[in-house]
Design goal:
Helix Hairpins; OB fold (Dihydrolipoamide Acetyltransferase, E2P); single chain; 24 helices; 28 strands
């Protein structure tokens, strides 16, 4: 558990009143973590810390059984469906498993089974031992052998309908094979992602400035629970079958027989599963799997033992949320204590500043760890992604003794700081405000944990990425100058920044060794390249703006800016004026207001553009570039419409069109759509229940139109 500042009272010593309060606190805390884990796919504590919370809650309830309520974590599974998907009622609830943490817990489990079934002390029930896959469980319903629905576990009774997403997973058959296919058949198992696929996906996500997942489990859950099925389809999800729900007929009388049947029906069953004849045999399996854990392609967090005979499973039944016939034997979290020597800042290819802990090397679960991720500035301070404290709010400092854990077998993380060992001289870490690679100022957007370098045009850590972007299809689109050539030119030191592309020919003419004489080039290809570059010296304004690689400026926003400012001079001047007004907590310049008022450009985008121009070296690189190229003015919107050049404000609830449609049409006709009413407003189009904007319009004497008036105006 997040190391409590107060040492918790021993469960044995709690008074009943204390127990009640403590249970309520634990229930709340567990509920919060459930939500983060199950609904947001973004846990903030380790699995073992979570288990510790639950164990304490269970222990208190065991001592005070009358304090158990419906709201107790022991009575619930997972978290209610998120509301992002339709709900599915499970025909048979999807339950959870009790945990064993020691060999003794495992033999206690078998003893309990024996007692319950009234078996002799020397009778050993056969047990199927399965790796416990660390993914998310899924229930697949087949009717007449055909996949009809797929649902997540949710709270165990109601899950989320992810049928369309699941149809994109290769391991999930759309149709069952074999003769023994029950007419109604629910197969359950785990959706997971291979460790290598997770790493590759994260790399891609990082490069695209998209969500980076903490571990393969979150990555699998996040990938499955996508509103856009195409995104799920692009993610390498896999599936192991190991259980079932409703079945009209049962193809076998044993767990191992059922698994064999699933294999025949077309599912993938984990190949490591073994049928064991004694407690010693299951424990030997546990150790063997534990040793192989790091080298498996996927994460597992323990081993599951299941009584093999299904008639015995039935007799054993369930206690509250878990079966009596199965138990999960968890692996101990792999942790070790070491010293954090130094915090380094790495600059990603898109400018994200990521802190990395350099550790005195230490072995964690058989792997030597010398670096750990520190994620971002807040993480070092002890603040989680959601603004809540992590590690009980304890910050991380250079010189600290820390506990490291290999989370999900992949990225080592710092779980806690040993405060007793903090050197007196250790100072709170000061996160750099400038980029260590280029010295440009680094900024954080509102509600963003990441600090980013603003030196888009000049930062060496970002150079190759920026250059690739600069020549890409929607930017300068220079034929014969693709990613490979850029990479090569950068390595050779001939193209280090955008302007170098346009001075290449001149410099080459003076060079001792000409490009055409170099390996891989020839007279013709070099001539063609220079011609292609020259052809792009005349460039449309929106392409140039897009090419700068400013955060949030995609093609659409680049066009909005180009259309608004019209010419490169107007754009440049306005941006420099806005940049002058930029200071830590805001910008009051008129130029900034004007930028921010462009329909479709909000604070975040406006800030990103202004931060770019607030970095003098970007401006220098930009101006150098402008000396080499001719920027064509943007196409002006249609001048002839009755509303062109007018400023319009839409307010109240519109019934004839949506706000976005209204805005798009108005803009197409050359009007400017503003968010607030001022003296400059020409028309206020008021729908039903219009409020303060309408009042203001009347006060200022601005023309107020109904939706119909507006339609008449633009159509007329
Ligand atoms: S059996 C009624 N077998 O562990 C019991 N579960 O803590 C049904 N899990 O929700 C579960 N591998 O997501 C079972 N071989 C396995 C498993 C497994 C992973 C997960 C599953 C379940 C959770 C229970």
């Amino acid at each position: 558990m997040a190391k409590a500042t107060k040492t918790p009272i021993d469960v044995d010593k709690l008074t009943k009143a204390q127990a009640r309060t403590e249970l309520m606190r634990l229930a709340l805390e567990i509920e919060t973590h459930n939500e983060r884990y199950y609904q947001n796919d973004a846990p903030t504590i380790s699995d073992s810390d979570y288990d510790a919370l639950r164990l304490r809650s269970d222990a208190i309830e065991a001592r005070f059984p009358d304090l158990v309520t419906k709201e107790s974590p022991s009575q619930k599974i997972g978290a209610a469906p998120s509301g992002r998907f339709a709900k599915v009622q499970h025909a048979v609830p999807m339950l959870s498993l009790g945990n064993a943490f020691s060999d003794e817990d495992v033999s206690d489990f078998v003893d309990r089974v024996r007692r319950f079934l009234r078996l002799d002390a020397d009778e050993n029930p056969a047990i199927v031992a399965e790796p416990k896959i660390d993914g998310l469980s899924l229930s697949l319903r087949y009717e007449g052998g055909e996949l009809v629905s797929a649902a997540t576990r949710g709270d165990g009774f109601t899950g989320e309908d992810v049928t369309a997403n699941v149809r994109t997973i290769k391991d999930v058959p759309h149709e069952l094979k074999g003769r023994q296919v029950p007419s109604i058949c629910e197969v359950r198992g785990e959706v997971y992602m291979l460790k290598q696929d997770f790493l590759a996906l994260n790399k891609k996500q990082m490069e695209a400035d998209d969500t980076v997942f903490a571990n393969p489990r979150n990555s699998a859950a996040g990938s499955l629970r996508q509103k856009d099925v195409a995104v799920t389809a692009s993610r390498p999800l896999k599936f192991f079958a190991y259980a079932w729900g409703e079945m009209s007929e049962r193809p076998s009388e044993t767990q191992h027989g059922m698994l064999a049947w699933m294999g025949k029906a077309g599912f993938i069953v984990n190949p490591l599963i073994e049928l064991c004849k004694s407690v010693d045999a299951v424990l030997a399996f546990y150790r063997k799997i534990g040793e192989r854990r790091a080298s498996l392609g996927y994460d597992i967090d323990g081993v599951v033992y299941k009584i093999d005979r299904l008639d015995w499973q039935e007799r054993l039944g369930f206690v509250s949320r878990s079966p009596r016939w199965a138990i999960a034997h968890k692996f101990a979290a792999e942790q070790a204590t070491t010293v954090l020597e130094k915090i380094d800042i790495q600059v990603g290819r898109t400018g994200a500043l990521t802190p990395v802990a350099r550790l005195t090397p230490v072995t964690v679960g058989g792997v030597v760890v010398s670096n750990a991720t520190l994620h971002n500035e807040d993480y070092i301070k002890g603040i989680g992604n959601d603004g809540q404290p992590i590690r009980d709010g304890v910050d991380i400092r250079e010189g600290d003794t820390v506990v490291v854990q290999r989370a999900g077998d992949v990225i080592p993380q710092i779980v806690s700081v040993v405060l007793d060992k903090r050197p007196k001289s250790a100072k709170p870490y000061k996160f750099p405000q400038t980029c260590p690679a280029c010295g440009s100022h680094a900024v954080r957007e509102e509600d963003e944990a990441v600090r980013r370098c603003t030196g888009a045009l000049i930062c060496p850590a970002q150079a190759v990425e920026r250059l690739k972007h600069f020549v890409s299809r929607l930017a300068f689109d220079i034929e014969g100058l693709g990613e490979k050539q850029i990479q090569q030119f950068y390595q050779d030191g001939v193209v280090m920044s955008p302007v170098d592309i346009f001075t290449l020919q001149r410099r080459d003419a003076r060079a001792a060794k000409k490009l055409a004489e170099q390996e891989g080039y020839g007279e013709t290809s070099v001539r063609n390249l220079f011609a292609a570059i020259d052809a792009r010296r005349n460039i449309e304004l929106h392409r140039l703006i897009f090419a700068l690689g400013i955060r949030h400026i995609g093609e659409g926003n680049a066009k909005l800016l180009a259309r608004h400012y019209g010419t490169i001079d107007a754009f440049r001047e306005a941006m420099l004026a806005a940049a002058k007004g930029q200071h830590g907590n805001g910008n009051s310049s008129e130029a900034y207001q004007d930028l921010n008022d462009i329909a479709g450009i909000g604070d975040i985008v406006a800030n990103a553009v202004v931060e770019f121009f607030a970095e003098p070296r970007n401006v220098k690189a930009f101006d150098e570039l402008l000396r080499e190229i001719e920027v064509l003015p943007a196409e002006k919107p249609r001048q002839s419409s009755p509303v062109s050049g007018k400023t319009v404000v839409f307010t109240g609830s519109l019934t004839k069109f949506t706000r976005d449609e209204a805005k798009a049409v108005a803009e197409r006709l050359g009007a400017k759509v503003a968010g607030s009413v001022s003296k400059k407003t020409d028309y206020v189009v008021a729908g039903e229940d219009a409020g303060s904007k309408l009042t203001k319009a009347r006060e200022l004497g601005v023309t107020v139109l109904s939706e119909d008036d507006w339609l008449q105006l633009i159509e007329g």
